[in-house]
Amino acid sequence: MATIAEGAGAPSVPRRMWMWASVHAADDFYQGLVPASIPYLVLERHYGYVAASGLTLAATLGGALPQPLVGVAVDRLRLPRLAAAGVLLAGLGFAAAGLGGPYAVVWTLLLLSGLGTAMFHPAAGKAARDAAGGSVTGMSVFAAGGTVGFFLAPVLAVPVLGAWGARGTAAFLPPAVLAAFVLVRDARGRGGAAPAAAPGRDRWRPFAVLTGISVVRSAMFSAIATFIGLYWIRHLGGSAVLAGAALACFLGGGVLGTIAGGRIADRAGPVRAVRIGAALAVPVLAGLRLAPGPLLPLPFAVLAGAAVNVPFAVLVRLGQDYLPGRPGTAAGVTLGLGVSAGGLLAPAFGLAAEARGTPLVFTLLCFVPLAALALALLLPPPDRG
Fold first, then answer.
1. Do 311 and 273 touch, CB atoms closer than 8 A?
2. How far apart are CA 373 and CA 330, in angstroms?
C-alpha cells in the first residue's frame, strides 16, 4: 500500500494514517471472512442459497442499522475507546460463529460481529479524516486498509477452514485483540481530545444522492463477494482453491482500485472519480460474466474489484465534504451504513441464484453500475472553504 500510494508523485501520507489503515484492515478482515466462509458452511451444513445469503444479511444488518446513531454520538461525545470496542466485538462474533451449530445461533453471532463494525467505522472515519488532512489519496489509504482486510480474509480462510472446517473460525480472533490493544493505547496518548469540526455548511441533498451511490456500489461489492466462489465452483467448474483465488483476485483488485480512486480524485476531482468508477464497472463485469472456464475470468475478477472500488474512499471523503460539521455522521453513513446497506440486497440476489443459478446473479450485476452512474451525474462539486 505504501508503495502504491507514495509512488509516482502521490501526496505523502501522515504516519498516524497508517495506524488507522492497519486497524481498519483488522476490522474489515472480519467482514471479509463472512463471504469467504460461506462456501464451507454451505457444503458442511447443507445451507441453501437463501440461507447462505441470510448470513451475509445478518452481518450487514448489524453493521447497517446502528451506523447513523453511532455517527451522531461520535460527533457529539468523546468516545475515544469506541473503535477499540467495535473491532473486538467484530472479532469475537465471527470467531464464535463457526462453533454454533444451529443456524439461528450462527446468524445471531454474525449480527453481533456486524454491530462491532458499526461501532468502529464512524469513530475511525472521523479520526482518519483528521490524519489525512486535505488529501483524498491519504483518505484512500485508510479505505484501502479495509479492502486489504477483505483481501486477506479469503487468503487465510482457504487453508484454515479447508483444514479445520467451520470450527476454524475461532483461529481468527487474535487480530481483533491486537487491533483493540493498539487503539486503546492510541486513545490514551490522545487523551480523548475531540478535534473541532471543519467550517462550512452542511449540504444534505447531495449527501443523500451520494448515499444512494454508496448503497449501489456496496450492493455490487457484496453480491460479487458472496457469490463469486459458488459461481466458480458450480458454474465454471473450478475447485474450492480456485474459488478462493477468484475472491482474492476480486478483493486484491479492490485494493488497487481504492488507491487509484484517491489519486484520480486528487487530480481530476472527487465527483469525476465517482463517475469514472461507475462507467468502468459495466464492461469489466460483462467480461467477468462472459469469459469461459475457471482460469480466463480471473483477470476480469481483478478488474471488477478495481472498478467497483474506485469510488470507495472518494465517497467517504466527499460525504464529509458535504457535511463538514458532522464528519462522524458522514463516515457512519458512507463508510458504515452505505457499505453495509448494500449487503441487505444480498437475499434478493440469493433468490435469483436459487431460481436460475449464480450466472443470473452476474448477468444482473452488469446493469447495476448504470444506476450508480445516473446518480453520480447529479452530484455537485464540494464546497472548499
1. yes
2. 21
